[in-house]
């Protein structure tokens, strides 16, 4: 048996080495693709091409007796690495005549990311940090684009200091709340204004498939090239008005971050053995625990600012607290029929999204389980 297994494992090792060689060849080809895209100003993410390629590979896998999901998983992971490699090739500059891009707060993590993306696209980038305001007039005098990316609680005050921009300069911000910053920019600057919210953190390897929300302020025709530049970087653009954005963020960000915060506090005070919890965890609970732990591995000031950024957030959290209490009353009353009724009504409200979310979560859980090292 040992000899037979050794022989088969040697063959597996040989195939694995061939796979590595082919992956290296694929990445080298992707690098060439990135250079062509850069020259011609094509987005690094082409959703139609990706969908068609995956469909074709799944069909071919089926004919070979290979599970279609297996080849899709391999290709999606390979493409993620490919998008990061393509980024290093740089990007076509859509506005080569633009005067300097000034990133206010450009020494912060998100500011550094966007400064680098503009530099990779051939723009002249200047940084206006907290220690540079004595030289602000000189930095801003020839600005063609000013990007404000500072902590939420500082954003309005910083925008108020930008009253002497050139008339044709584009002013934008990257804040996770939009109504107040957008109005402040419109008040302080008479030129083109757009509110932006990158729906990702500064640790992304690439902007491919990442969402950038944009809220129109003024002069869409003058800042349209900026949105097009984001698209070339691979970003997916989501237009929305500022008020709708902020209502959505109350649920997507403020409430979700607060519930993770509260759950983390509860765990700390219950004081379980985390290593034991992980050993006992199914992939879904491990993933949930990871998302809570992820929150506490980041800047508390950032999340405090997000949650406390508006009274609407606090009111939403209060409503959640009340409904949590109502749900708890069902348990205290041992009201299983009431629980089932509420469950069914909520399931009906989710409708077809329940099946979609089930499929998406199953894929995530498979990946999470693959990454677990037991024993």
From TrEMBL:
This is T-protein. Residues 1-90 form the Chorismate mutase domain. The gene is tyrA. It comes from Vibrio agarilyticus. It is found in: Cytoplasm. Residues 99-361 form the Prephenate/arogenate dehydrogenase domain. It catalyses: chorismate = prephenate; prephenate + NAD(+) = 3-(4-hydroxyphenyl)pyruvate + CO2 + NADH. SUPFAM superfamilies: 6-phosphogluconate dehydrogenase C-terminal domain-like, Chorismate mutase II. GO terms for biological process: chorismate metabolic process; tyrosine biosynthetic process. Keywords: Amino-acid biosynthesis, Aromatic amino acid biosynthesis, Cytoplasm, Isomerase, Multifunctional enzyme, NAD, Oxidoreductase, Tyrosine biosynthesis. The keyword NAD applies. Its main location: cytoplasm. In the C-terminal section; belongs to the prephenate/arogenate dehydrogenase family. One of its GO terms (cellular component) is cytoplasm. PANTHER family: PREPHENATE DEHYDROGENASE, PREPHENATE DEHYDROGENASE [NADP(+)]. Pathway: Amino-acid biosynthesis; L-tyrosine biosynthesis; (4-hydroxyphenyl)pyruvate from prephenate (NAD(+) route): step 1/1; Metabolic intermediate biosynthesis; prephenate biosynthesis; prephenate from chorismate: step 1/1. PROSITE patterns: CHORISMATE_MUT_2, PDH_ADH. Pfam families: CM_2, PDH_C, PDH_N. GO terms for molecular function: chorismate mutase activity; NAD+ binding; prephenate dehydrogenase (NAD+) activity; prephenate dehydrogenase (NADP+) activity. InterPro entries: 6-PGluconate_DH-like_C_sf, Chor_mut/prephenate_DH_T, Chorismate_II_sf, CM_dom_sf, CM_II_prokaryot, CM_T, PDH_C, PDH_N. The keyword Amino-acid biosynthesis applies.
């Amino acid at each position: 048996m040992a000899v037979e297994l050794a022989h088969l494992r040697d063959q597996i090792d040989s195939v694995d080495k061939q796979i590595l060689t082919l992956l290296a060849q694929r990445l080298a080809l992707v690098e060439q693709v990135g250079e062509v895209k850069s020259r011609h100003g094509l987005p690094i993410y082409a959703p139609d091409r990706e969908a068609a390629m995956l469909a074709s590979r799944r069909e071919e896998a089926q004919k070979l007796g290979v599970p279609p999901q297996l080849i899709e998983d391999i290709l999606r992971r390979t493409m993620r690495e490919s998008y990061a490699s393509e980024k290093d090739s740089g990007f076509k500059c859509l506005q080569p005549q633009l005067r300097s891009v000034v990133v206010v707060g450009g020494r912060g993590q998100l500011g550094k990311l966007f400064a680098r993306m503009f530099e990779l696209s051939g723009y002249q980038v200047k940084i206006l940090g907290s220690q540079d305001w004595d030289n602000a007039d000189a930095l801003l005098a020839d600005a063609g684009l000013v990007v404000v990316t500072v902590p939420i609680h500082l954003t309005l005050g910083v925008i108020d200091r930008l009253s002497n921009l050139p008339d044709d300069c584009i002013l934008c911000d990257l804040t996770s709340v939009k109504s107040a910053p957008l109005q402040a920019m419109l008040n302080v600057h008479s030129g083109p204004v757009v509110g932006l919210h990158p729906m990702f953190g500064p640790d992304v390897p690439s902007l491919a498939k990442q969402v950038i929300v944009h809220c129109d302020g003024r002069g869409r025709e003058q800042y349209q090239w900026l949105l097009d530049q984001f698209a070339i970087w691979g970003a997916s653009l989501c237009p929305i008005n500022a008020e709708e954005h902020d209502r959505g963020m109350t649920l997507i960000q403020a409430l979700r971050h607060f519930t993770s915060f509260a759950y983390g506090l509860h765990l700390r005070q219950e004081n379980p053995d985390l290593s034991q919890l992980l050993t006992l965890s199914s992939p879904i609970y491990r993933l949930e625990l990871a998302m809570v732990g992820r929150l506490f591995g980041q800047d508390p000031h950032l999340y405090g600012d997000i949650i406390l950024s508006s009274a609407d957030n606090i009111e939403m959290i209060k409503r959640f607290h009340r409904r949590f209490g109502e749900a708890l009353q069902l348990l205290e009353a041992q009201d299983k029929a009431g629980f089932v009724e509420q469950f069914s009504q909520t399931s009906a409200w989710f409708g077809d999204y329940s099946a979609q979310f089930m499929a998406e979560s199953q894929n995530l859980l498979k990946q999470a389980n693959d990454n677990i090292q037991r024993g």
